[in-house]
Amino acid sequence: MLERIGNCRIVEEVASGGMAVVYRAIQEPLGRTVAIKALKSSAASEEHVVTRFEREAKSLATLQHENIIHVYDFHRERGALFIVMEYVQGIDLYDLLEKCGRLPYDVAAIIAMQVARALDYVHYRSIVHRDIKPANVMLSRQGGVKVMDFGIARDTNFTDLTEAGTGIGTPAYMSPEQVLGDKLDARSDIFSLGVVLYQMVTGKKPFVEDEHRSAMHKIRLEKHVGARKLNPDIPRELERIIDRCLEKQPRDRWTSSQHMVMALERFLARHVEMNHHARIVLFLRSQNVITQLEADEYLNAGALGGGTTSIAQPNMQARHTVRAGMVAHAVTFGVLALMLGLIHVAPLGATPESHVVVNQTVGRGFIRVHAFPWANISIDGKPSGETPIDKPIELADGPHTVRFEHPWYVPVERRVEVNGGTPDGATQIRVDFPKEKIARVGQKPIPALLGESPGGDK
């Protein structure tokens, strides 16, 4: 085994694959633990493999996101290539699924949301990962989620090494267009993430080879079995999110990773009542991936609420059932109390009047704004935030001008007439920038980054 690479002292080998070996090392000037990915000599003799390895380092070096492995350095020594990157102590999703079969649906949704955030970040930068699968998703002991291995990612800053009509990736996680070798965009990664999410909540892949048909044939032509048929505990809302990811036609999937993130955020807001990192830590402890001492170190009273550090896995279904029962009892008691009050207060022979109180401010109304891919919002010339904006915006009754601005497109203005109303009945205003005019600098159009790449594959 190697002893040193650059200014790093090798400690141990932690993983080995077909083309690369990963070592744990100490970057001595900083005393920092790092991971070093070394290209095997057998693979280094192939020019296209070396080119992909170098591109992986360059692509990752430009990405700074909490859900993506960070690259620190790149070395070429003694004819060998090395990428020095962030060392994440934890377990990859592949090994975790091997250990426990399937995950609680809330944990699976948290992991999928973190991966979708990473994809939204890279898709905005015209990078398609092309190999989203459990082995490329790392869970840290502190509850973080990291996307790894951009070795076959398509970056429009470089010439594509994949020939037209050639499928590249891991078969069971490929999108239909990936199987066919068609040109890929961000929606291909969304399909792959849908496969991973399906596997997390059911313990099975949606498309598995059998004696009659291959997995790739099923991906292209066959409908997957509904997730709730394999695991009835999955909420219908989460099943609908999965189903939309697994649509055969890209146009029928989530328009962007950002839209998927928003859908998962809405789902988790109703099903997880603690810090998301803390929820993953609790699950890792329940599976003996980390020790009780480590769990106590990572967790704090603020993360769990109520000042407790119990590692008991929260039973979200039981909690929601109890809450629903309490609400039903409260409503029943309220109705009985109202009837008794009317009987005692209303004069004999009189019909009690009923009054409905609506949460509405006189002279005020509400609007909701939506923009794809995103926009800076100003109302009547005053900045009002950047989409997505979760809460409805309250405005005085009367006409208003809402302006949507995005650096890649011509600004769009919408006129809206506000005339009272409640937050639930807020007027919806939507702008889809790709359908509007593209901004121009001189005579050259600036292309949209989501949905298509500048110039396409070369």
Features:
single chain; four-stranded antiparallel β-sheet; alpha+beta; 3 domains; Phosphorylase Kinase, domain 1; 14 helices; Transferase(Phosphotransferase), domain 1; disordered C terminus; Immunoglobulin-like; six-stranded antiparallel β-sheet; 458 residues
Q: Quick recap of the structure?
A:
With 458 residues, the protein is α+β, with helices and mostly antiparallel strands. Helix content is 34%, strand content 22%.
Would you mind describing this structure in some detail?
- Helix content is 34%, strand content 22%.
- It contains 14 helices and 20 strands.
- The strands form six sheets. Strands 1-2-3-4-6-5 form a six-stranded antiparallel sheet. The chain has a four-stranded antiparallel sheet with strand order 14-13-16-17, with no helix packed on it. It has a three-stranded antiparallel sheet with strand order 7-9-10.
- Strand 19 and strand 20 form a beta hairpin.
- Helix 6 packs antiparallel against helix 9.
Supply the CATH superfamily name of the largest domain: Transferase(Phosphotransferase) domain 1
Structural class: alpha+beta
Question: What is the CATH top level name of the largest domain?
Answer: Mainly Alpha
CATH topology of the largest domain: Transferase(Phosphotransferase), domain 1
Number of domains: 3
State the total count of DSSP E strands: 20
* Estimated helix fraction: 25-40%
Task: Label the CATH architecture of the largest domain.
Answer: Orthogonal Bundle
Helices and strands in order:
Layout: E1 4-5, E2 8-16, E3 20-27, E4 32-39, H1 41-44, H2 47-61, E5 71-77, E6 80-86, E7 90-92, H3 93-100, H4 105-124, E8 127-128, E9 137-140, E10 145-147, E11 154-155, H5 176-180, H6 186-202, H7 215-221, H8 227-230, H9 236-245, H10 257-271, H11 276-286, H12 292-298, H13 301-304, H14 316-345, E12 364-372, E13 376-379, E14 382-386, E15 393-396, E16 398-405, E17 412-418, E18 427-432, E19 440-441, E20 444-445
Parallel strand pairs: 12-18
Antiparallel strand pairs: 1-2, 2-3, 3-4, 4-6, 5-6, 7-9, 8-11, 9-10, 12-15, 13-14, 13-16, 16-17, 19-20
